[in-house]
Amino acid sequence: MDGLCLKFSGQSRTHSRPLQVEDGAMREFISKYADRIHGVLSCFDRMLFRGYLPIMSGWQMAQFFNNSNIRYRELKPFLLEQAARVKQHGVDLAQKEGRPFQYLQEKVRKEELARQIAERDHIEDGLICVLSVLEPCRTFSFRTEKGKPFVASARRKCLFLYYYFMDRDFGLIHVKLQTWFPLQIQVYVNGHEWLARKLKENGIRYTKQENAFLWIEDMARAQAFSDRFASLEWPRILNPYARKVNPLMQDILELLPYYWVTAQSEYSTDILFKSASHLNELYPRLLSHSTLCFGAKEVMSFLGKKIRSQFEGEVVTDVADLSFKRIPGSRIKHRVKQNWLKMYSKAGSVLRLEMVINEPEGFTVRKEVTRKGKKVIKWVDMLKGVAYLFRYKDVSLAANGRYLNALAQVDDPTDAIRTLDRITTRKQIAPKRTAKAFNPVARDEVQIFRALLAGQHMIRGFSNPDIRQILKDSPHLNGISDPKRRSAKTTRILNRCHAHGLIAKIPHSRRWRVTKHGRITMSAAVQLRDVQFPVFHSLAAA
After folding, report:
1. CA separation, residue 83 to residues 91, 116, 189, 381 (Å)
2. Phi, psi of 272, rounded to the nearest 5 degrees
3. For residue range 163-173, what is the model confidence (pLDDT) as tens digits?
4. Residue 145's CB: how many other CB atoms inside 10 A?
């Protein structure tokens, strides 16, 4: 099968196939509001890369001690000596570069502090500062079992060193190093900052506020640069920083390189509106629609999944800062396990959809694996290695696209009134045949709409048996015991919906799909009956 093949030193060989995003998923929303939108940019945002030495487990650490000829009674002095070396290296490096080394006793926004220091001292390249913080860590304990020394993983508190650098390509980054073995390391970079420097380097003008672009002179070239981020040679970029902050890489760990993984990935799709007023008019309706209409099934479908019986976990949606007087601070977040999908307004005129991946195992990647002694290409669970970053991009872009596609049904009142008039009027389908009109607030009609909009149908559509199963206890089918009559009644329901343009046939199959018009109309009817009508009824009765 066709695909992209990437190979990094020490990483797996993988093949990329973009996720199946519905045709025109983003285009549908963008074309609807084209007169208000400057452009669209999809880009990695905050990225956390973590490095692991091959001494993370107790048995690996014990093997390291054996290979280094370190005796059990020498372990504690050896480890304390190495921890002191790592800390002293931070002090010495800061002193050599003429930069501050500061121990933080209280909770401080470290990135903000580093920015203040960089601005104060006009740092444009190199080390900004080194911050020392006491934090929980994963380390080792040593004990004797059955008369033999034993090394086990343990939770402790130890000193962490935060090195803040102003990198030529990535801007402000930090390198976080644990001073105790196994010397875990973490590197933070920001994709938007990297892109900003690429645009400047290539003479493309832009307006940027924090980590959001408000305007870009050439959106197509900007997106082309952004797409390169995932294929950067990350081990080659990250290893020099590891060697710079960890003095043990020069001697006792010289032959033990770090294996780099993506600890957290944020991938955003930004809709750049021409003015804040354009977004402010629309955003409250988008937020309200997401809150009321996107349940667990819809959220799972955005991620390209279904809720199955063996699913263990929860789908949580929460909304923060719902005061529409302060739109830039409003956001909705849908969380599935340790991954989440967010929508919020950024810098006043940017609508941001953001996919955050902490646990990639639920997603898949096509790669070469060994099965029964033979090498084959298969879709397998995606791992955290940086070689899979291109797949993080595919998964996140597809999720953002599906979410934006679902938001495209949020329309202006004029079109809504026209739609209401169409479905509440009998439809002429032949010279002597008409299709019955719909009553969008009637219980029986809304039951049909709910069945057609069920989340499990979003990917593959639905068939007569699917709808028949959902409506089996409804007034439509409840009194019909004969299977053939139940099937015929369901067919008439589907034909009626088809006549009004709510659903369409999937070519070369017996399945149906909800049309754009149907998704908009039926979602509005469900919300009208469940939410809006009770509210208006209460107001009228008051």
Report:
1. 13, 29, 26, 37
2. -90, 105
3. 999 999 999 99
4. 8
This prediction has a pTM of: 0.72
Residues with Cβ < 8 Å from 108, sequence gap 6 or more?
none
What span, in angstroms and rounded, lies between the C-alpha atoms of 502 and 440? 13
Looking at the chain, how many residues does it have?
542
- Give bridge partners of residue 427 from the DSSP assignment: 435
Phi, psi of 202 (to 5 degrees): -105, 15
482 in helix, strand or coil? coil
Q: Is 184 left (phi over 0), alpha (psi -120 to 50) or beta?
A: beta
Partner residues linked to 353 by β-bridges: 269, 343
Which residues touch 368 (CB under 8 Å, ≥6 apart)?
12, 13, 14, 15, 375, 376, 377
Evaluate whether 226 touches 191 at the Cβ level (below 8 Å).
yes
User: Is residue 133 a contact partner of residue 109, using CB atoms and an 8 Å limit?
Assistant: no
Rounded average pLDDT over 416-426: 83
pLDDT at 399: 94
Per-residue pLDDT tens over the stretch 106-159: 889 999 999 999 999 999 999 999 999 999 999 888 777 766 777 788 899 999
397: which residues sit within 8 A by CB, 6+ positions away? 18, 19, 21, 42, 267, 269, 355
Domains (range + CATH), the chain: 413-541 (1.10.10)
Distances in Å between the alpha carbon of 510 and those of 67, 298, 466, 496? Answer: 66, 23, 11, 16
**pLDDT band of 370, cuts 50, 70, 90:** confident
